Amino acid sequence: MKLLENKVVVITGGGGVLCSTMAEKTAELGAKVAILDLKRENAEKVALEINKNGGQAIGLEANVLDKASLLKAQAELHKNFGPCDILINGAGGNHPKGTTSKPYFEAEDLEKDEDLITFFDLDPEGIKFVFDLNFIGTLLPCQVFARDMAKSQSGNIINISSMNAFTPLTKIPAYSGAKAAISNFTQWLAVHFSKVGIRVNAMAPGFFLTEQNRRLLTEENGDLTARGNTIIDHTPMSRFGTPEDLLGTLEWLCGEGSAFVTGVTVPIDGGFSAFSGV
Ligand code: NAD
C-alpha cells in the first residue's frame, strides 16, 4: 500500500512552481489531491497532468484570503474526495511595495532620486498585502480544513516558511516578518491541536530559483546578480535548490515516520541557515 493511499490532500498555491511539484508527489504517494489556487487555470493544469499520469486530482479556484471562497472549495472537495487529511499551505510570496531598493540605508539617501525606495517610503498597503497573503493566507485555510481533521481526530498541516524567518534578509522586511510569523504560528498551532491528533509542522526552503525571485537573483542573460552571488556564497552546498529537493522532507512530514514530530520548521537550504558567513 502506498504511503498516502486513502488520504485527501489539500494544497494551496498548488498551481505555483514549488507546490505543483509537491502536489504531484503526494498524488504519486497515492493521495487524492485538491489543488487550490487563485488562478483556476493553473490549478486545473496541474490536476490534469496528475490525472493523465494515473493519479487523482482536482483543480479548484480559491483565494486563501477569503473564507467564503475556501468554504466553497471545501464543499467541492467533500463532494469529490471527502474530508481533508493533510493541508499544505503553499500560497505565499512577496510584493515590490514591501521591498527597499537597497540593502543598507546611507546618509546620502536622504537626498534621494525619485526611483529609490528607502525604508521611509515603504507603503503600509504593500506591507499589509505581504503579511495578509502569507500569514492570514495560512491561518484561514487552517480554520477551514483543520475542522475536517478535528472531526476525525487526526490530521497533518504543513506550512511553508522561509530562510528569512530565522534571520531577515535585507530589502524584504514584510516578507521576512510574515514568514517569521508563520514559523511562530506553526509552533502555536502544533501545541493547540496536540490533543486532537493533528500535527503541525513547516518547511523552510532555502533559495529556489522561481518566477517570484528570478528578477532579484539573475540578470536578463541568466548571469547571477550581486544578490544571487551573495546567496550562493552563503549556501555551503553552492547551488540553488530545485523543487524536487523539498520532496523527501514532505514525504517524511506527511507520513508516520514523523508521528512524534510537531511544531518544527525544517530548513531545506543546502546549509544556508547553519552558516555564519565566516
Ligand atoms: P509561486 O509564485 O510559483 O506560487 C505561489 C502560488 O500561489 C501561485 O500559483 C499563485 O497563483 C498562488 N496564490 C497567490 N496568491 C494567492 C491567493 N490569495 N490565494 C490562493 N493562491 C494564491 O511561488 P513558489 O516559489 O512556488 O512559492 C511557494 C511557497 O514557497 C510560497 O509560500 C513562498 O513564499 C515559499 N518560498 C519560496 C521560496 C523560493 O525560493 N521560491 C523560498 C522560500 C519559501
From TrEMBL:
InterPro entries membership: NAD(P)-bd_dom_sf (IPR036291), Sc_DH/Rdtase_CS (IPR020904), SDR_fam (IPR002347)
UniProt name for this protein: SDR family oxidoreductase
Gene source species: Reichenbachiella ulvae
Family to which the UniProt record says this protein belongs: Belongs to the short-chain dehydrogenases/reductases (SDR) family.
Keywords: Oxidoreductase
Gene3D superfamilies recorded: NAD(P)-binding Rossmann-like Domain
Keyword Metal-binding attributed: no
Name of a matching Pfam family: adh_short
Residues forming coiled coils: none
Signal peptide: none
